[in-house]
Amino acid sequence: MSAIAITRAGPLTTLQDAGRFGHLADGISASGPMDQRAFHEAGALLARVASTGIEFTSAGLAFTTEGPLRVGCAGGQFRVSVNGNPREWPARLGLNESDVVEIRPGPAGNYGYLRFNLDCDIPTVLGSRSTNLAVGLGGWKGRALRAGDRLTFGAEAAATEAAPPPPPPDGPIRILWGLHADLFDAAARSAFARSGFVVSPSLDRMGVRLLDPAGVFRTQRRLNLVSDAIVPGDIQILGDGTPAVLMRDHQPTGGYPRIATIVSADLDRFAQLRPGTEVRFQPVSLEHAR
Amino acid sequence: MEHGPAATSLSPPTERIDLPVPTLLPLGDRALLIRFSTELSDHANRATIAFARQLEADSPEGIAEIAPGLVSVLLRLADGADFARLRGELMLRIGQTVDAAPGVEHDVAVRFDGADLDEVAGLAGLHPREFIARHNRRPLRVLATGFAPGFVYCGFHAADLMLPRRESVRPMVPAGTVLFAAGQTAISATPIRTGWHVIGQTTFQNFDLEATPPTRLSPGDLVRFTEAA
After folding, report:
1. Higher confidence at residue B178 or residue B5?
2. What phi, psi does A39 have (nearest 5°)?
3. CB pairs below 8 Å between A and B: how many?
4. How far is it, in rounded angstroms, from Cα A26 to Cα B152?
């Protein structure tokens, strides 16, 4: 039997599969990888790939192996070494007993992924092994992985994954106007699309708060709205005028006004933007987004 | 947009509902929202529940998930779904009259000892005993689920029991907390933060990961609140 013993884990290191779909009405959002493209890129590095992988954050991860294991690593730009020998990123690793894998922060990205050729011994919860940190459900006992945790593996997986399409080019993050765009006047909408925002240090799997140096929403009046469904990528304006982008562990419904939604093709790219990065939004048509 | 007056009485179990014409809005590029109103009303909520049930019974192609809310239904689209065609299919079903099947009935016993009970009763001009009697006088409809695991909004109470939310949000309240605001009673099934008034506690548990489905209450069900012995 193979296993990995985690010796160092940044905050919010979680087990994720494609997501826990179909439970919005039960009050559970789908979770799943913050950067879905990178999750599949890591999976496509292996001939056989298990559905569940590890999502780690910008602080990186370290572990020791027990028994043979193949690992695909991708997402962001990290530095990885095996027994002290640096390897290229993204990486395909063929590991053996007592190998020491060190993943250290690199120049870009918030999230990296490890995919394995073996199925991990983690029970499914409502059909998925994804961790929902907002609810404390699924994955490793409903919590983030940390040093001392030992993840054991079973049989080799049967599935294969195709390489994802190349990432969309850098540039403004594309948005569709949101559920409540009509509650913002034309000047506010135009300022939103014209101004630069900055990714704040307040980010997690639930959402990313943005700084608004131009003060686009500074004088936003408080609105009393009936709760409606939320989707990943929704940009809501909190009561104090802070814009916040809802991410994979979002609450399923909410009552803050939502000016726009990041198109699904750009949400992975947005998730990887580090605190301090300037971000601009570009409205596109639904036809363009699909 | 208001579709008729906000009636507060509970209709007989089986009813025919005239669906108001909703607005179809894309929610990002992977979901559609069918919104019956921008304000919470009895009619819009009934229409939302009836329309969601109708879709669940007979789903057009391309829908991966149906999640009714208070006044709107979220449709999560399947990969590769044809947005325009689905929109057309949905338009054909709009403006019809649908039969609303009677909701399943549930009994929920509450210990009315919440920190805000006396204040809430006082604001309604009632003695706490009187408030409890009024609160439990008739069953409430499950208006919506989905805010948090197993969380339900039930309504509507009579107009004189309408109270706004609290000014401040409470730190975590435990699962089974019975909450009161906006003419509704809500029940938490996991620890949550809330700006609603805490009026009691129930052992009724609406979230069980071992069960399929994990929640027992569905929109449109009826909840009879009783006082726990």
Report:
1. B178
2. -60, -45
3. 117
4. 9
